[in-house]
Known about the structure:
mainly alpha; 5% strand; 61% helix; two-stranded antiparallel ribbon
Amino acid sequence: MTRAQMVAEHPGMIIRHHDFENFPQGVKTHTTAPLDYLIVLLKSGVAITLHVFDPQKTTSLHAQALDIAGALIGPLLGTLGTVFLAFWAWSLRFRFWGIPLLLYATSPMLVHGTVLGRPDHQALLILLLTVALGAEIALVRPTLDLKVNSATHQRFWSVVSGLFWALSLWVSLYEPLVLLATVVVIGLALDRRSMFSQERRRGWVVFLISLTLIMMVEGWHIDAPDAALRANFIRWQATIGELAHLNLLSPQLSSWLGWLALLTPLGLFFSRKTDRRSLPLLLLLLVLLSLTVWQIRWGYFLVVGVVLALPIFLPVLVKPWIIRTAFFCGLWPLAADWEARLFPDSAATRRLEMKRAESVALREIVATKVGTNGGPFLAPWWLSPAIAYWTGQPGLGGSSHESLPGIVDGAKIYLAPDAATALPILRSHRIAWILADVPERVISTSATLLGVDRPSQSMAEQWARPIRDEPRDSAIIPDPSIPLHQGEIFYQIWIVQPVSDLLPN
Length: 505
């Protein structure tokens, strides 16, 4: 959202460096322009809509058009994915076309990736890779009968494939690159002649031209990992939920796919002799499952693969009533998952209410006690991106692995035994104010990141103690206003005084 705000203020801007994280060095970011400009474009649409329906500007929403656009971009991209699937199924004359659309719209994993209020590049990747993989399936002739797919059909989907692979690589050089390599290897192994057919060559040309233009606009964002990244990435990864491993014995996979997690590979295996698309899809799903076991973030694309596989293997069940019964019974674990989400128990309700209250409280304390002129700040790294967006001030931490040097220094400050130990690090980063949070959250995450045991005393605990008068010659003092401390919510601002003579000799 900070990037989108910068682009909205400077149209035509391509952001290659972030000054608002890992301050003061900043980062050479791997994040790219497409999502920035989509949010800004949607902001214009929101502004026009508000102007049409509220020309007198009676609502405060007019000043929040960018926030609204950021909240809506995920669901909008998810809707576009559903529209594509409908067109794709119609183009390929699939029966039971509504079944993959229903799974795409209801799988909790895909809903999480495109949820309201989560302006994340994963939502755009889900759409782009759904189109790219769908085009690859359309390019595989289901039988040896050359009349099944016309040359025009092949040329169209070849161009779509080349364009959307290039666009997905523009967004990220991680998941799209791995999936493209997997698709190419499977294609060369199973049907090398088709990969270099005249129709496919058109798509490769579109891919190379598009990628060249993208590189001219965006440049190259990848650098060799620095020492901090190499030393701390594995421990930092342990604190990131989407980088965790998937336990196949847990109910997590069935909550995304239901019993289709078992039915899909079996269906593709038994339909491989009647439909040439089944075997490459089965191999792709096996690769995606392995990647998801390694990192849960691949689960988005595993679900997309199953969605695309459904209309290919379902006809093997022959009878329509069998197909529909098998599908809806297979979705039973999804129904149980949605029931728990829509009708949570008291403990889950309390956690949700507390999470919402904390979000409101965080913005309240940052807006009222710091504003937009507070200067560089230290906050828990998972809160830093939002604070940077609200205040327009740079933070020591960030949410990406490029910010690891600042994240590590922030952890050292929170775990420092006393102010004298923390102060030199704070001064080296020119930190003006610190956000104190519930120490249990900060200390445990910081200790995991640094690979150390929980210290007996730390600044994180000292900053969370009840406010009392601090000596005026202290270098780190509480903000004079009343701290926000309600129940389990605790946020308090501490000011780093610019008193150079307090540095240790």
